[in-house]
Design goal:
Belongs to the ABC-4 integral membrane protein family. LolC/E subfamily. With about 475 residues, this protein is mostly helical. The protein has 2 domains: about 190 residues, no CATH class; about 240 residues, no CATH class. Helix content is about 80%, strand content about 0%. The chain has 19 helices and no strands. Helix 12 packs across helix 17. The longest helix has about 40 residues. The mean pLDDT is about 80.
């Protein structure tokens, strides 16, 4: 099966462009963080930190939050991205099954392909990161020490091996469930034109959802209990912000597990408010509901990115408002937040866009079918523009719900500790992120619409 796996990979290499881009972006960001962590252990760095009176663990602590946000984003994005790629290989998988390959062999072939793509993407990201390791190390050192201390970045083979090990493990975990489902799918079912993801939650999702909900309640109880162990308003405000950020990250994971139930409900609810007076809006809405698999894999990464941005900046805004009301003059530094959240924006944005890009051929066929039914080219272009809007707005609504819950919880803990009730939302981040995400998606979905509008119908309807 090794020869079959790599032969299929060479023949269908275009299908794996998306995962390579996502893995490459992840490896680039991970290389920067690992290089910073590794460089702090050199004798030159240790002597420099000693002169500043800082311990090694204290300065390295800033990299741990980056590990958390990168890991959360990568697992969710790669899971959806790999699932889209494997679904796009349904004809090749059906051919293997018809040729006599057993499910175990098909699964092994898919896993080998994923690991090979991970290997290539990691090396690509590592070498692209090399010119950036010194500026990144300087920035992270400045965040940790609050000084302009210079530490020489060391991106040697240890950094490469650690980055490679991390990406291989994450990619294998991300491909585990899609590969198992693809291997068990009968050949006849695999060649259907519209393989739809189940709108029901499986056992694994229910278990994950239950654990996530349990963690949410534990965090809420811990946040309320923590107010009895603080000795000053400033300490209470900092503890409330920390608990709310933890709550927001857990809510993002909870929404990810509940996506098959929650996303269609929210999408249907808010889109029903807009009357379907135009054919393009009706087609866009029905397409988003019909292609549930695409909708879910596109919206979930965006939701994670939007939620983390909204929660963290909302928590900081609430913290700052409480400080101002109580007369504590202590401006909070938001530069560190941008540094932490930049990897989230990159990974989730790239993941959502590549998911749409990899399904471009199927979308072209669907739009061409709509054209044969009498739709005009302008209607097709408006349809994809509105469909991209549905994805972005739905992700924004879910993120806004999580943000409101976290800032309200944070404000309640402030009141219990004797502080003000000052929930605040930093809507500037949503105002910046939503248009950028929409434009990126619009550029991707416009290509199938253009092809379906201008190509000969026979070639546009030809299966991929």
């Amino acid at each position: 099966m090794i020869r079959v796996a790599f032969t299929t990979l060479r023949a269908d290499w275009r299908l794996w462009i998306g995962p390579v881009i996502v893995v490459g972006s992840t490896a680039l960001l991970l290389t920067l963080v690992v290089t910073y962590w590794w460089s702090l252990g050199t004798p030159q760095a240790e002597s420099t930190l000693a002169t500043l009176g800082r311990s090694l663990d204290e300065v390295r602590a800033s990299s741990y939050m980056l590990y958390v946000v990168i890991a959360l984003s990568v697992v969710i994005v790669l899971g959806s991205n790999t699932a889209v790629t494997i679904r796009a290989q349904r004809y090749q998988i059906a051919t293997l099954r018809l040729a006599g390959a057993r499910p175990r062999q098909v699964r092994a072939a898919i896993t080998l392909q994923v690991l090979a793509v991970s290997f290539v993407g990691t090396f690509l990201g590592y070498f692209l990161a090399l010119p950036l390791v010194q500026p990144a190390t300087d920035t992270l050192t400045r965040m940790s020490t609050r000084t302009d201390t210079h530490i020489t970045a060391v991106a040697d083979g240890v950094v490469l091996l650690f980055t490679l090990a991390c990406t291989l493990v994450v990619c294998w975990l991300a491909s585990f469930r899609p590969a198992r489902i693809a291997a068990k799918t009968p050949a006849v079912a695999a060649v259907r034109d519209e393989p739809q993801a189940s709108k029901k939650m499986g056992v694994v999702r229910w278990i994950g959802f239950g654990l996530a909900v349990s963690m949410v309640f534990m965090i809420l109880i811990g946040a309320i209990a923590s107010v009895f162990y603080v000795s000053s308003p400033g300490e209470a405000f900092a503890a409330g912000a920390s608990n709310s950020i933890t709550l927001g990250i857990t809510l993002a994971a909870t929404f990810g597990f509940a996506a098959p139930l929650m996303i269609p409900a929210i999408m249907r609810l808010w889109t029903s408010i807009v009357p379907p007076t135009r054919p393009a809006w009706y087609l866009a809405r029905q397409s988003a509901f019909h292609r549930f698999a695409l909708s879910s894999t596109t919206i979930v990464p965006l939701t994670v990115g939007f939620t983390l941005f909204g929660v963290i900046f909302g928590s900081i805004a609430t913290w700052q408002t409480a400080l101002n009301i109580t007369g504590i003059s202590e401006p909070l530094n938001t530069l560190d937040t941008y540094v932490v959240l930049t990897p989230v924006a990159v990974i989730t944005g790239v993941g959502s866009v590549t998911n749409l890009f990899m399904t471009g051929r199927d979308r072209q066929r669907e739009l061409a079918l709509t054209r044969t039914a009498g739709a005009r080219p302008g209607t097709l272009r408006a349809q994809v523009a509105l469909e991209a809007l549905i994805y972005v707005v739905t992700a924004g609504i879910v993120a806004l719900i999580a943000t409101i819950v976290t800032v309200l919880t944070q404000s309640v803990t402030y009141v219990l500790s004797g502080g003000p009730f000052a929930p605040s939302l930093d809507l500037t981040q949503f105002a910046l992120l939503l248009p950028v995400a929409y434009v990126a998606m619009l550029l991707v979905v416009a290509l199938p619409a253009y092809s379906a509008s201008h190509k000969d119908l026979r070639s546009a309807l030809t299966p991929a």
